[in-house]
Every structure is written in C-alpha cells, then in structure tokens.
Specification:
Elements lengths: L8 E11 L5 E12 L8 H7 L7 E7 H5 L7 E5 L13 E5 L5 E9 L3 E5 L8 E13 L2 H6 L9 H7 L1
Antiparallel strand pairs: 1-2, 1-8, 3-8, 4-7, 5-6, 6-7
Length: 168
C-alpha cells in the first residue's frame, strides 16, 4: 500500500514561494525540508492540513496572506539618501543593512534601488503587500521515529554547506 501523509509520518518536501500575479519565483528551496505531520512544526496548520492524505509526487499550492504574516506595507520604512552618504559596500541591490532605532533595537533594511545619485533601502519584509502561493512537492513519506515525533522533524536535518552546494 502506498504511504500517504497522516499523523506521525515524517514528510520531506521541496518548496517554492511564487508571486500569485506574475508567477515570479521569490524563493526556491531544492534541499528538502522535513516535518512530522500532526506535531508542532515550522509549517503553518493551514499548510499541514492541506498536506494531510497526500502522496509522494503530489504538488499542492497554498495561497499565503503576507499582510497577515508580516503586517501591511509601511512606506515610512522606505528611505532614499544621496549615494555619497552610503558606504560603497552597500551599493548593490539586495544588500542587507542593519540599522538601530533610538532605543538601540536593530532593524534590517534591504537596498532596493541605486543609481549614480541616490540609494533606496526598504525595511519592509520583501513579501509585504504581495499575494504569494506556497508551492510544495511531496518527496518522501515514512513512519517517524519517537525522537522525530518529539522533535517535530528529522533528526540531524540541518544540512552542511557542502551538502547544499552538491545538491544543486
């Protein structure tokens, strides 16, 4: 009988986060993630509920409300400054800059745009204000061990950098 996803099964998945309108892929994880169905895991109940009863090879698409996850977009977290006021190592789109507020609390900002005169950073999560789909492919299903059930995932599941690089 084919294994299917049910309580106390260890499930390995590959996933992508896709823009619902443009179908651009924001994040693609090729290295499998693993969780135990029916336990506390890194996946939301909304996702694990939709995985219940699925088989190896199944692909599901779960719409995600990013405003619920990250809050609505806040334009006061977008700043543009003269390029000469920003150190050269930050002159690249996608670079993360950590700044502190008046209370000393850190906040990450991402460089979203720069030219020869200005540089713009954004402190919003990159998915704020977007409609995305969490696309998951079921790679493997098996009975979880007692230790995995207690952990909620695969024991020793953190891959080394070599494993990740060789898996691409």
């Amino acid at each position: 009988m084919k294994e299917f996803i049910e309580k106390n099964k260890l499930v390995e998945l590959r996933y992508e986060v896709v823009d619902k309108k443009t179908e651009d892929v924001f994040t693609s994880i090729e290295y499998p993630i693993a969780y135990v169905q029916g336990t506390e895991s890194m996946l939301s109940d909304e996702v694990t509920n939709q995985l219940e009863g699925r088989f190896i090879g199944d692909i599901i698409k779960v719409p995600i409300d990013c405003d619920t996850l990250y809050g609505p977009r806040d334009e006061t977290l977008v700043f543009t400054d003269k390029i000469e006021n920003v150190p050269e190592e930050f002159h690249q789109v996608g670079t993360t800059i950590t700044m502190e507020n008046s209370k000393g609390e850190p906040k990450n900002f991402i460089v979203t745009r720069f030219d020869d005169k200005t540089l713009t950073v954004d402190g919003n999560n990159p998915l704020c204000g977007r409609e995305v789909v969490f696309k998951l492919e079921v790679l493997n299903i098996r009975d979880a061990t007692d230790e995995e059930i207690a952990l909620g995932g695969k024991v020793g599941a953190d891959p080394s950098l070599d494993e990740i690089m060789n898996n691409k």
